[in-house]
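agent: user wants the structure for NADH dehydrogenase [ubiquinone] iron-sulfur protein 5 from Rhizophagus irregularis. delegating to structure tool.
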Amino acid sequence: MASGFGYYGNRSRCFTFWQEFRKCYAMADRPEQCTLQMDDYFECLHHTKEKARAKAIKDQELKLNEEKKKQDELSRKLTDSANKSNVTILGIIDNSVKQKEASN
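agent: tool returned. relaying tokens verbatim.
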């Protein structure tokens, strides 16, 4: 990969990062001075940060979907229980009687 030739004869996708790293390494007094360039080159090769970020985004999306499902299930249960009690809909108990019972 560091040779600069890609699969089809032209430059590889990471060749510019390799050149920056090589230039820094040649001019640096200590190899630790080129850690940023080395990180950029390795990220271009392996995409570790990109994969970690995509995984974090996917995990957050799954978490939000799970929370939404729980909320939907709770609201569905509440509406089902309200729909099952047809006492007020049928007019068996008058609203004024319910209010008197609630005040006592």
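agent: one observation worth passing along. The chain has a mean pLDDT of 83.
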